Amino acid sequence: MRHRHGFNALSRTTSERTALKRSMVTSLFRYERIETTKAKALEVRKVAERMITRAKVDSVHNRRMVARDIGDEAVLDKLFKEIAPMFVERKGGYTRILKTGYRLGDAAEMVILELVEKTEKKEAKAEKSKKDEKAAKAN
Fold it and tell me: Of the CATH numbers 3.10.50.30, 3.90.1030.10, 3.40.50.880, 3.40.47.10, which one belongs to the domain with range 14-138?
């Protein structure tokens, strides 16, 4: 039985709620962490975790299913080529929620929603390899 299994409407109409989730999940994959309210984070987390699970298998069907919600091609590519491969061994729990306190204006509980593992930037990799080369030459 599925009694009382629902979702948080977030005081929005269906179209507003869909747009909010799409934009927030796109931002999450672009920046790998976002700060938002706890209620929104819990809803966005559901969508993001399903997308990462689907992105583990890079097929045309999965890309099209995820592309329904992610309009930015660069973010979609990042999800399939950088983010999802990090979580191949993990069965779930790709995101974490860290509490940061309460917002001053309305005392809403604020949290940081982030991916459990971080992607290394190409620049950081290049800097590491340069440092390793210099260290090797010095020895």
Answer: 3.90.1030.10
